[in-house]
Amino acid sequence: MRILSLFDCHLDTIIKYLPEIKYQGFDAIQISPLQNTKDDASSEWWMLYQPINFNLGNRIGSSDDLKHLCEEASKYGLIIIADAVINHLASCNNTGSLEVHHSCDKEILDNYDSFKIKRNVEDWHNRYQVTNYCMSLPGLNPNSRLVQKKIINMLNEYLRLGVKGFRFDAAKSIALPEEGCDFFPNITYALNSWIPIIYGEVLFADKELISKYARYMKVLTNSDAYDNNDIIKFIENKDSYLSRDLGWTKNTSIYDINEWYSRMCHDYPNTLYYARNYSDDWNSWRSDYIRNSNMQLKLKKWYNKIMNEDIELMQKKFNTFEVDWMGSTINGPSCLTRHHIIKKEDGGSNDINNYALLTVESHRLLHYLEENNYVDYVNLNKMFLELNKSMAPPTIEYYDNIKKIIKKVKKIIKNKRRVRRKK
After folding, report:
1. Catalytic one among 8, 105, 201, 376?
2. How far apart are CA 294 and CA 28, in angstroms?
3. Active site residue 169
4. For the whole prediction, is pTM greater than 0.85?
């Protein structure tokens, strides 16, 4: 899944970009938190992460706006992912106080076990501190039944409006069942309908911790994992670009960000691209480079289908071989063979193994080209070589050309079979 993060973007504005977002190869849009904030008139980006309750509606839009966005997005096959602030409420000032703002949910304020220990985390490697202390804002107690009820009601309201996914902000600060907290199982099991994706934010974490969170949801992270399928990988987000204290990518050029994102798309099936706020770089998500990066995985699957490849990831009792196919290790049965390129130059020839895995039928098509249309055969082989060897994202044109060539060959063979039947 390719996710576009349009942080602090009004919901009505997003609707205008839906056709382009779909064209750019994105599958989902992550919007900003929609919870009521302590000062809705403020334009500070971090104000969206200082909610006073779990009701919906703030400067980026209303519940009706969200419903309209979800309806329009579904027409393009896009899903809307809501950013849920579930770890804390707004503070009484903007200087890191752990005192709760007076306008926060009265029922929560009056409940004795609604909040975490009123103390800031000092050691981010200490799991007790991370999950029981605060992060410069009044932390909510995830074991509180009242807190869980309020959050569940909000999430189900999001679902009623058409949202199809959730980002759980600061999930790393919420303990897991093995740490004595039933928050995540209770929250996810109480949802009124199935949704395609839920992911929790777990930054700067080791593989072991990520694997533990991955038992309950996917993990949004800038770190590595044992299994790439467990995570939503990102290079940059609103904290790394906008935060005064963190801001680890704010001085990184958009060209470097896009280059790293492209490489990331080559290795990770689920990624998030952040559109830089309040900057000319915001438009970078609209570039051909980002589209080509997003389309890599989809086009590889399409490519296998076009080439009539039936790649089964299984072991055979005999003649089994292992081959690296465009970044993925594949175990193939004996009916699948490696494709070799014959490169002729300087009066001689070179046999180049480009590691492509093809069915017998696909090889027949190529051999037919070699004998009957050598120009197309050479061009197709060049594409094989570039697709397999280059780390740069393959362009749409590569696949369009492959499709044309294969379509032409199949038409020739089909006509040839008709001639045989007539005879």
Report:
1. 201
2. 12
3. yes
4. no
